[in-house]
Amino acid sequence: PCGHHKHLKSTNMLERLNEEIKRRTLVVRIFPNEESCLRLIRALAVETHENWIEANRYLDMSLLTELKKKALMELVA
Q: Does the pLDDT value for residue 54 go beyond 80?
């Protein structure tokens, strides 16, 4: 659907996540080992994922189901 185009063409979500990772790793500055850095990044990714599940509806799938129904009706008719 046309309403999804601007979201599918954009990399804003990834850019925002990368900026947040960069910001938080710069605060720590020196990690004692690789695992501690990965723990921070994983925690940030999980936090971001949970926020998106609870708060935002990035793509409205009802538009897609309506398009499918219209297409099926045209095939039947």
A: no
Q: Please tell me the pTM assigned to this model.
A: 0.58
Upper half-sphere CA count for residue 44 (Cβ side, 13 Å): 17
Number of H helices, E strands in the chain: 4, 0
Whether 32 and 4 have beta carbons less than 8 Å apart is answered as no
d(CA 60, CA 7): 11
Q: How far is residue 25's CA from residue 9's CA, in Å, rounded to a whole number?
A: 28
CA distance 70 to 4: 17
DSSP three-state, residue 69: helix
Distance of alpha carbon 63 from alpha carbon 67, whole angstroms: 6
pLDDT digits (tens, 9 = 90+) for 24-50: 999 988 899 999 999 999 999 999 888
